[in-house]
Here is the input.
Amino acid sequence: MSYGINSILYASDLTPRSPAVFHHAVGLAARFNARLHAITISLPATSLPYMDFSAGQPASGHLGDEALLRQRIQTFAEANPDMPVAEVLASVQAIKGDPSRCILDAAKNVLADMIVMGSRRHSALGELLLGSVAHKVMMGTDVPVVLVPIYR
Here is the structure.
């Protein structure tokens, strides 16, 4: 039986720690010679406004999020010329909806063999009351999920 990772989904929340997560996603894609699909999620307009609490600013909106993700990927590629971003990156997309559901749906759509995303530190009570996108993704998929800590 052969084993391979051909497609990796990278889910970004566009916070300042996102480049550290992207670094792992690109590295894994290069190591496995896999295609990397980058997504970011924004909540529907009917939801409470999504706040990037690390920056204290509302997210830029659905269409703006894709442009911002593309810009951050370009900035990362320029700052890390040794990383094969252009060679592994297959798609960039902004999706509107429930973050965990959108990540799981996107993983199915790109036939992801792995999901790479950041994870914030939650207390046990916070996890119980709020849940976490990372936890919901891990419980809802049958592919490996690589969690990169982004709580600094």
